[in-house]
Amino acid sequence: MAVNPIYEKLTSVKRLNPQANQSVVECVLQANEEIKDVLAVRAEAFLKNCNIVKNAIEYSGVVNFSILYNDVNNLPQALNYMAEFNDKLSINNDMLPNNCICIATVVDNKIINVSANSIKVNAVIEVKNMYAQNEEINALSNVEGENVYIQTEEIQKTSLAGTIDSPINLNENFSINDSIFNVLEVSVEPILKSVVGQDGFVKVSADALVNICYLTDGENATIRNYNATVNIDEEIKLDFVDDENLIEAYLTNNIEQLLVNTNIDVDKAEVEISAQLILKGFVYDKEEISVVSDLFSTENEITTCTSSFNSVCFGGNVLFEDKISCGAVITDEMPFADDVLSVCVSSQEITNSYIANNKLNVEGVVRFNVLYFNRESMSVVGFITECPFEVSGGINDDMQDFSNITSIAVGDITFKSRRGKEIDINANVFVTSNLLNNENCAVITNIEVGEEKQENECAISIYYVKAGEQIWDVAKKMNVSPDLILEQNPDLKLPLEGGEKVFIFRQKQVEI
Q: What three-state secondary structure class fits 266?
């Protein structure tokens, strides 16, 4: 029997499970004057390079430490220092990816030691490594030959079209109606809202949370914060992108490119901020393809070989916000809080994120720098308080089994003092998450034609349909074509329910 199998080469992407690696950066910051006490510490990180080298992911980046402290005259001062770091994460040789994306966040930072004019600090940096790997496989798409019957099915195929690593420049001017002596610190925290492919472009919608911490002018100088939200709508040119693509994306802040220019007048200031955000991501092609899912021959035995076929199901970018609150307690050893000046984020950490009951649930800790004024000492006092949180947002029913890659931003911070011994802190947590799932299915990759089948000697064959069987299943067991069953059993109602009798009549020559 002549059987001609037709194979099609399929390329599909496999999203390997993300891995997280932590690095500790420790350094000593030198001040120009004597340090009385430290008010606040904040750190943020940015990865400059991330490369696959042999059996490891090697990465390097920078961490920026921002310190506020009082000098010996009780005047708040700022100290900034950018330190470089590098590390690597080993990978199993059997699972070396084609492409990777690395994102760095500071999950903790603290003061180690304070001397006369130096501060020793460290930061714990968590690097998330995300991998995508294209795989090729030959799948059976058709079979030509007499008395060979095939069944086909449509399957989803997702392949990696390319990666994104593109800058988004942000230039904004802020007018602050206050008497400003000096800008102490500026932070820019991005929130990615949506990423959509167009013909040759990627359309990005995002917000940037801007915080400007400054020292006021005058005899009673104090610290204040100015907060703003900048809307970003950007189109990035990428020739290989179209509106059919699925895009998994992440937005980070390139802290090396942050520039601040301040023009101070008597009772107002113009603060010009130039920042660079980096959009990173994977771009997927998605299509439906037809493959042979089953086959049989009425003349010969046919055996099949199957292989597992991976396809990424991408649930898109999920964005929601929720409120968090906590109380910062001023202990008996600390000076009384006459006036709360500022509450801003020191670091933030996601301890757990999971999907349950149609919700994405995120647990973590936000550490706030709290600054207040004490009249008795006529000085600013600072401390760090931790705020554990649990937030959740709804997702679609069909995403219950998806994994999530989640990040958070904290903004809209408000605070209120209670009797000078406790401070109520309220804020919004903005959650962005990419939902993904690796779907596996078996495809036929090879067939072999075996021995001839013995001819059925019976003139009439009867088969009792079992529950769950379809015409195809019955045809395979009776070794006839599905069309012949329908032709000789015109009273059959589809779909089959089970219990029906199926008859096959064969013409036999009888010798007399």
A: coil
Domain spanning 454-505, CATH class? alpha beta
- Please write the tens of the pLDDT for every residue from 367-387: 999 999 988 888 899 999 999
Burial of 58 (0-12, 13-18, 19+ CB in 10 A): middle
Q: What are phi and psi of 285, to 5 degrees?
A: -95, 135
**Which amino acid, 454?**
Q
Distance CA 38, CA 16 (A): 43
Distances, alpha carbon 229 to alpha carbons 209, 340, 406, in Å = 5, 23, 21
Please write the tens of the pLDDT for every residue from 139-151: 999 999 889 999 9
Residue 512 DSSP SS3: coil
For 490, other C-beta atoms within 10 Å of its C-beta total 6
Contact 292, 446 (CB under 8 A): no
Query: 363 CB contacts (<8 Å, ≥6 apart)?
Result: 350, 351, 352, 353, 388, 389, 390
Contact 337, 381 (CB under 8 A): yes
The Cα–Cα gap between 6 and 290 comes to 12
Distance CA 422, CA 328 (A): 6
What is the spatial distance between Cα 432 and Cα 473, in angstroms, rounded to a whole number?
47
Question: Cβ of 496: how many Cβ atoms within 10 Å?
Answer: 18
Nearest residue to 128 (alpha-carbon basis) of 24, 261, 18: 18
Length of the chain: 512
Q: What residues have CB less than 8 Å from 453, skipping those under 6 apart?
A: 297, 298, 299, 300, 301, 479
DSSP E strand stretches across 177-266: 180-198, 201-216, 223-237, 246-253, 259-264
Q: What is the pTM of this model?
A: 0.87
Extract the tokens encoding 299: 């003349």
Going edge to edge, which strands form the sheet with 56-71? 35-53, 56-71, 76-90
Assigned token pair, 421:
């011994």
Cis peptide bond prior to 495, omega within 30° of 0: yes
Contacts of 20 (CB under 8 A, 6+ apart): 126, 127, 128, 129
**Helices and strands (H, E) in the chain, number of each type:** 2, 21
Query: Two tokens at 412?
Result: 């809209």
* Cα–Cα distances in angstroms (integers) from residue 3 to residues 38, 138, 146, 298, in the given order: 81, 18, 8, 12
What's the CA gap between 471 and 454, in Å, rounded?
22
Q: Where in the chain is the domain with CATH 3.10.350.10?
A: 454-505
Q: What is the pLDDT of residues 190-207, one digit of tens each?
A: 999 999 998 999 999 999
